[in-house]
Amino acid sequence: MAEVSVTKDAAPAADELVALRNVNKHFGALHVLQDIDLTIDRGEVVVVIGPSGSGKSTLCRAINRLETVESGTITIDGKPLPQEGKELARLRADVGMVFQSFNLFAHKTVLENVMLGQVKVRKAEKSAAEDKARKLLDRVGVGTQADKYPAQLSGGQQQRVAIARALAMDPKIMLFDEPTSALDPEMINEVLEVMQQLARDGMTMVVVTHEMGFARSAANRVVFMADGRIVEEATPDQFFSHPRSDRAKDFLSKIL
Ligand code: ADP
Ligand code: MG
């Protein structure tokens, strides 16, 4: 830790939850994260967009340390990411992650999926974990599915269970990596609506998505990545109406 400083600038802003400073990572010769500087404030919804292969997933995975980085620093709540052990398990609980592929435990019921981490990582009592799981399942609209197995649910329902499971850990931030990309079109909105509600409730969120309607309505900030770099950061209005870089203009012309 740096020594206590009398200058205001040296201290992290009080509302800063996640900070990446000059982060770099390679996969072999590929420089997948290049000098990434990004801060995410409490309650902020940051939508990350960009072409396939630009490093969006790697960025998310670095924030909950599913990937290590080679240089730079990543802090959550002012603390550097832990390297291993119990501290790392706690970090993973603090940083909820929802993937494209729902990643539920296939041999556990929906209810058990949402209870497991509470009991194992947060050391909750079983009855308290069950109460909370049922409340969360209700909140994401799948309360009646509690005793089923994941394979008996639709993709949209499974993804909402995955969101409930992450929320059960009381995360400080939720990372969504293309949460609707694997869904049939008619199920996309039911998942986006749950995410919209979370955003309205004040959850800090990083969302990688190609759903530009969601970006426009839910994001406080859009981060546009290309070739491992953050090329633009702007409000959704600014970004969609007046993209500054040629890369962003080119990207938007292809998807809008
Ligand atoms: P995005 O999510 O924006 O599509 P990714 O972060 O998944 O991009 O990947 C960025 C680049 O890194 C891609 O070229 C991808 O092929 C490569 N990559 C991702 N994971 C690995 C890995 N584990 N080993 C080698 N290359 C990888
Ligand atoms: Mg990806």
Automatic annotation (TrEMBL):
It is a peripheral membrane protein. InterPro entries: AAA+_ATPase (IPR003593), ABC_ATPase_HisP-typ (IPR030679), ABC_transporter-like_ATP-bd (IPR003439), ABC_transporter-like_CS (IPR017871), MetN_ABC_transporter-like (IPR050086), P-loop_NTPase (IPR027417). GO terms for cellular component: plasma membrane. Keywords: Amino-acid transport, ATP-binding, Cell membrane, Membrane, Nucleotide-binding, Transport. Signal peptide: none annotated. It is found in: Cell membrane. One of its GO terms (molecular function) is ATP hydrolysis activity. Residues 18-252 form the ABC transporter domain. It comes from the Bacteria. This is ABC-type polar-amino-acid transporter. It comes from Streptomyces triticagri.
